[in-house]
Structures are given as structure tokens and as C-alpha cells.
Amino acid sequence: MLNPERRVFRKRGNKIVASYDKDREDILVQLKNVEGRLRSTQEMVEEDKYCVDILTELSSIIGATEKIGLLILQDHIQGCVKNALTQDGGESYVRELVDAVERFMKS
């Protein structure tokens, strides 16, 4: 993982923001949706609901989190990595990206 001081962020006015800032609200809405679905699934287990229904809900949650991860990854590539490639040390960002994609794919 790169030193946080070396990370590339976008600027919005005078404020420095993360590369996913343009999608922040959408990401938060999706995460809150997943949070609600997790609570609902927990209740299903507590209420001894049918196994297949729980598995179906879990599959849905996994798909939703993958969608969120892909959106953040896309923003990272289009923001942090793209900017880093124009700066000295861009290779370390490429290595970090490859590591991040590998971790994401293993989950």
C-alpha cells in the first residue's frame, strides 16, 4: 500500500477529495441498501426462514457489494491511477492497482 501522502486525489474548489467523490452519494445509498439487506437477512436467520431464501438474499447482497466495488475501482483508475501515471512514481500506482484488483477478485 502506498504512503497516504503520495496518493492522488481530485480537487473540488480548494478542497481535496477522493477520486470517488463524484459517485459518493450513489455509493452511500447503495451501501445503506446493503446494510438494510444484511439486517433483513439476519432477521431471516433469527426467525428460522427457509435456507434457500436466505441464500438468495445473500447472493443479492454479494452482487450489490461487487457493483459498489467496481464503481470505486473505476473511479480509482480514472482518478488516482490516471493522474499518477503522469507523475514520477506512476509505476508504484500500477502495482497498487494490480494488487487491489487481485484482492477484489479473490473476495
Mean pLDDT: 87
What is the radius of gyration?
18 Å
Structure classification: mainly alpha
Q: Percentage of helical residues?
A: over 70%
Poorly predicted runs of 5 or more residues: none
Topology as a string of helices (H) and strands (E) = EEHHH
Strand order of the largest sheet: 1-2
Strand count, sense and barrel status of the largest sheet are: 2 strands, antiparallel
H/I helix tally: 3
The count of β-strands is 2
Whole-Å distance between the termini?
A: 18 Å
- Proportion of strand residues: 5-15%
What is the assembly state of the chains in this entry?
single chain
Q: Which descriptor suits the 3D outline?
A: elongated
Topology:
Blueprint: E1 10-12, E2 15-17, H1 24-46, H2 51-85, H3 90-106
Antiparallel strand pairs: 1-2
What would your notes on this structure say?
- This protein has 107 residues and is mostly helical.
- 70% of the residues lie in helices and 6% in strands.
- It has three helices and two strands; from the N terminus they run E-E-H-H-H.
- It has helices at residues 24-46, 51-85, 90-106; strands at 10-12, 15-17.
- A two-stranded antiparallel ribbon has the order 1-2.
- Helix 1 runs antiparallel to helix 2 and helix 2 packs antiparallel against helix 3 (90-106).
- The chain is elongated, with a radius of gyration of 18 Å.
- The mean pLDDT is 87.
